[in-house]
TrEMBL record:
<keyword id="KW-0472">Membrane</keyword>
<feature type="domain" description="Extensin-like C-terminal">
    <location>
        <begin position="63"/>
        <end position="238"/>
    </location>
</feature>
<dbReference type="Pfam" id="PF06904">
    <property type="entry name" value="Extensin-like_C"/>
</dbReference>
<dbReference type="InterPro" id="IPR009683">
    <property type="entry name" value="Extensin-like_C"/>
</dbReference>
<feature type="transmembrane region" description="Helical">
    <location>
        <begin position="7"/>
        <end position="28"/>
    </location>
</feature>
<keyword id="KW-1133">Transmembrane helix</keyword>
<protein>
    <submittedName>
        <fullName>Extensin family protein</fullName>
    </submittedName>
</protein>
<keyword id="KW-0812">Transmembrane</keyword>
Amino acid sequence: MKGVRPYLIWFAIAIVLAVGAIRVMQWVRAHPEHVPGARFEFEHPKGWATHRKLMNFAGDDAACFAAFDRAKAGYERRPVVGTGQCRASQRMVLTGNALVPTMRPANAAPGCAVTAAMALWTRDVVQPAARKYFGRNVVELENLGSYNCRKIAGRDAQSEHSTANAIDISGFVLADGTRITLANDWTPGDKRSEFLHAVRDGSCDLFSTVLSPDHNAAHADHFHLDMAVRTAGWSICR
C-alpha cells in the first residue's frame, strides 16, 4: 500500500478489531447458553456450556436453588441428611409438574443439580421423544429412588446416590395411561424401545453419567442419571 501512512493502516486495523469485539459481545449477550460464565436460566436453550453449568450446581446449593427461584418454580427443600461422603444438602421435591413430570413414588427428593438437569431433559429430550413416537406427553416418571449412602457396585468409589446427586428412572407414563418401562420395553422391536433408546441417547450431553440396560445387568430396569463433578467436565453414556 504505497503512499498510505502507517498510522492510517493501524487505525483501520483498530476499527476492524473494535467492530469485531462489539459483534462478539453482542453474540455473547444473545447466546448466554454457550458462555460458561453467564448465569444459568431455565428459559435458555441448551448450549455448549449447559452441562458445565448444571455440573457446577452440584457444589453450589445457593446458586442452584436461586435458579429455581428466578423461574418461580414451586419446590420444597428437604432436610439435610447424612454426614461426610453421605451428606445430602440439596434434596428437593418439585410441588408442580411444570418443569418435570410427576414423580412416582413422589418422595424421591433428588438433589437440586439433578433436578435442574431433569427439567431440561424433560423439555428437550423426554417430551419431544414422547410426542414423536406416541403423539402425547409423559405425565409421570417412575423412579427407584435418589438418596442411598453406598459404594458403586463392585468398586470402592462412593456412588453419586450418596449425596442424592443421582436419580434412577425406571418407567414413563403417558397422558393416556400408557406405561413404558425399561424392564419390559428396552429390547428392540417396537416404538416403545425406540422411545427409550432415543431418551437414553438424548440424555448424554445433559447429565454427567447416563447408564442404561446396555451398560450391565445391574441397570437392566432403569436409567441411572447423575451430575457427578469431573474436573474436565467429561461425561459417561452407556
